Fold this protein.
Amino acid sequence: MIYRENGQFKTTYRADQQIFPILQDRVVIGLFLVFAFAAVPLLASDYLFRAILIPFLIISLAALGVNILVGYCGQISLGSGAFMAVGAYGAYNFFVRIPGMPLIPALILGGLCATVFGIFFGLPSLRVKGLYLAVATLAAQFFADWMFLRIKWFTNDSPSGSVSVSNLQVFGLPIDSAHSKYWLCLSILLVASLLAKNLVRGAIGREWMAIRDMDVAAAVIGIRPMYAKLSAFAVSSFIIGLSGGLWAFVYLGAWEPAAFSVDQSFRLLFMVIIGGLGSILGGFLGAAFITILPIALSQILPVAAGWFGLNISTAGVSHAELMIFGGLIVWFLIVEPHGLARLWSIGKQKLRLWPFPH
Amino acid sequence: MKVRNVILAVAAVAVASSSLLATSAFAQAKEQFVPVLSYRTGAYAPNGVPWANGYVDYLKLVNARGGINGVKISFEECETGYDTARSVECYERLKDKNGGASFVQPLSTGATFAITEKAPTDKIPVVTVGYGRSESADGSIFKWNFPIAGTYWVAADTILQAISKKEGGWDKLKGKKIALVYHDSPFGKEPIPLMQERSKMHGFDLQLLPVTAPGVEQKATWLQVRQAKPDYVVLWGWAS
């Protein structure tokens, strides 16, 4: 009743091809952006920013990148942590070694380093598929672990292997308060999502989806597999590298190579699987699920155990988190293998009829 | 279905109300709040669990004896699993609770580095008892770090002094081979600058043999040790 596009006729191709053709969608997205930019900084507490919102924004940027590679192009990658690491250390080296390098160009250059790394470790995708490609990208992960631990040049010859950045600023505005960090991450996420959405709606996105669905048929009709696969690796690694730079600079502040371990790669892959492969929204939903659930569980479980008179230790909470987490992943894959994004689109379809059921 | 919905609704309401009620008044009693960042899970749990138990027990003992000059210590444990990002999240969650944290012990070198950056802004002293960032002994730079009971450089120097005593003096170390088998992380790399300085000062041959984190797979390194045949092996690990 509310969510119908009756009467919304498009008179130009441009209007017809926009990302949100339905007026209600545009209104909701506009309100949501206003809420995100203006209302959240006024309402949220400092803890909510530093521990939940900022990591959520950065990880959803990374999930966006992974979704482009895994969901849209069908190349399973377990090397996302490595791309984040390359982005972070690349940005760090540009930031520290070139005097006066501003923050955003350093992050973008870090992303470009990750692009080169991603293309290099994407070369196996031209020969292997599926599980074997996952193993080949896992090699990227361990290679990056080794590289940043052993090659002292990358950590600026720091004796402990730990590096840190400080005094971040964008156009003279310091990025030290929770609000400024939140706005920086939100703006970068917005720009990157817009670019990613337009890429996947365009010719290159259709090439990726063709390779995902049936690569032999795609090659037959004239799509070059090498170009499509390597461009997917390139774009995806750039976005993941950018998010790695943000994770290190804005969220952690000081980090060591273990911050981008194989656990991070697995988390990103699970996010994309739970959120929905092949959907931009799916990256955000999966990131929200995986970032917020452990924290929510660690708050709720002691309270829940208290009703039954049990005292649950912090180790117990941590173990329970893992069990519940794993159980939920399995449950999701059985109930809705296409992820949360599919649930969302089913919801929107039902809203078109609401409140009049068939 | 209906019973299940009722139960879920009651659960949601109860959680919401109890989390609101939990911020009750600690304002009456004289208390200081200490966040306890511990790791009872993860690769270093064998050392983390006794440490956490001892720390919590000691805080309870101090409270049972009347507190410090009558001021009791309230604390809350947070599980970090020796992961820097989780430690930072625990620190952020607990630093403002119950009137603000009086001090924080990061308990992991990675977390020490990260929290050292944040402590001056939050004005919370970072206490590192025998671990942490060795450079933080310089209070003029690291104004909010308090390394108590020595740092890793002190520990490494003590080990070298013991070795030299065994040999009969620093000059007897000349030409000897000392292998440092260390955990390949910021924690493990802490003693290296000091050991390299000492090796230059006294002329002994220092061999650095890293063990990949988390340190359960050490076979390769010990094969290297057998090959190198050092006079002394200094093991710089933790619970593995």
